[in-house]
Amino acid sequence: MTVLGATGSIGLSTLDVVSRHPERYEVFALSAHRQVAKLAELCLQFSPRVAVVAGPGEALELRRLLVGGVLPEILYGPEALELVASAPDVTTVMAAIVGAAGLGSCLAAARSGKRVLLANKEALVMAGDVFMKALRQSGAVLLPIDSEHNAVFQSLPAGFAYGLKGSGVRKLVLTASGGPFRQLEPALQRTVTPEQACAHPNWSMGRKISVDSATMMNKGLEVIEASWIFGIDAERIDVLIHPESVIHSMVQYEDGSVIAELGNPDMRTPIAHALAYPERIWSGVESLDLTRIARLNFEAPDFGRFPCLRLAYAALRAGRSAPALLNAANEEAVSAFLERRLRFDQIAHVVEAVLDSAGVVELNDLDTVLAADAQARECARAQIRCLETVTA
Ligand code: NAD
Ligand code: MG
């Protein structure tokens, strides 16, 4: 298998599960971007045939760190990511790069008929139609890693994962922890720091998705992701706040039944499910102790407090390039927030301004997706500069 984004939170959890089953999985390639020292450690542990990094400098550095041992072939750049995602020796690709940077390699895996373990939700949000068409044409299989989508997948009847027609499904209910600011006075959102936003109560994750969880844009991206994976429209996807993150999502059926997947909040469970599907393997995660948890809580999401969730639903309903614009604007705004150039509450302002000003167009292929992405980023950067001058 190939693990894209091997040094990230999902990549490391994947390799943790893989290391429990050395007889089952052979690591063909590992990728990291700039975290070369971490990648070197993983190369020593997993002996991949290929290692991919950001550029020539990182490649030299990795070679230096590994000298004296068995060297993998060291490649760099986006084409190398596509190469290891589509290599003939690879059957399974874990797509765990964060953001739009993962789109090319995700698509390469989909086009070449791999088992695509999809963590990189931004790729699907940007290019859902192009990606799903590529999967269908090549016969590739998508297995969702995002815990909500993995829970829905597990709660559906076999064979209905990519289209719910005839399944008797009434609605999907995606649960959300509500993040660290569920109860924060809305007026105080303007004072939130990157450190506060990255301290998630239940899950330990990369910085970008942690900020997305805090704004609830993450749930919005997941609503769009669910709409593509399961072929269902916005009206039939609900979001439910469930602070304990024990129920990972649910499916409501026409007859009134509700089927859910429960577990401890640890990404190794959905990862192990997708790695072994349709078998079951040890993931390192213990089963739930419901007597210890004792109480589960639920509440409706507050769209006023979390405007990013409202904007994501609006983008899904608008369709065409609107989700790609939303995603690109959000990526720009989140990185400006992490660099302390934008306030937390201004992330939603930037996204809304981009959705209001950039025209929505059809997305037929990768080029039109990338053009919409670039246009939204330019517009978002202008907005951010404007807010910076006003705030300074
Ligand atoms: P992370 O920041 O911990 O790791 C990101 C990985 O991508 C790293 O290996 C990094 O080297 C690599 N990377 C970063 N920029 C890159 C670039 N420009 N080109 C190539 N590689 C690059 O992120 P994460 O939390 O592991 O999340 C990865 C993806 O999985 C995201 O799309 C996220 O939304 C999704 N996801 C994560 C979780 C979670 O619990 N962490 C849960 C569900 C979904
Ligand atoms: Mg999720």
UniProtKB/TrEMBL annotation:
Residue ranges occupied by any 1-deoxy-D-xylulose 5-phosphate reductoisomerase N-terminal domain in the UniProt entry: 1-128
Keyword rRNA-binding: no
Cofactor names: Mg(2+); Mn(2+)
Family: Belongs to the DXR family.
Catalytic activity from the UniProt record: 2-C-methyl-D-erythritol 4-phosphate + NADP(+) = 1-deoxy-D-xylulose 5-phosphate + NADPH + H(+)
Enzyme Commission number: 1.1.1.267
Enzyme kind, highest EC tier: oxidoreductase
Organism: Uliginosibacterium aquaticum
Limits of the DXP reductoisomerase C-terminal domain: 262-378
Primary role: Catalyzes the NADPH-dependent rearrangement and reduction of 1-deoxy-D-xylulose-5-phosphate (DXP) to 2-C-methyl-D-erythritol 4-phosphate (MEP).
Protein name per the record: 1-deoxy-D-xylulose 5-phosphate reductoisomerase
InterPro entries in UniProt: DXP_reductoisomerase, DXP_reductoisomerase_C, DXP_reductoisomerase_N, DXPR_C, DXPR_C_sf, NAD(P)-bd_dom_sf
The entry's keywords: Isoprene biosynthesis, Magnesium, Manganese, Metal-binding, NADP, Oxidoreductase
Binding-site list for Mn(2+): 146, 148, 222
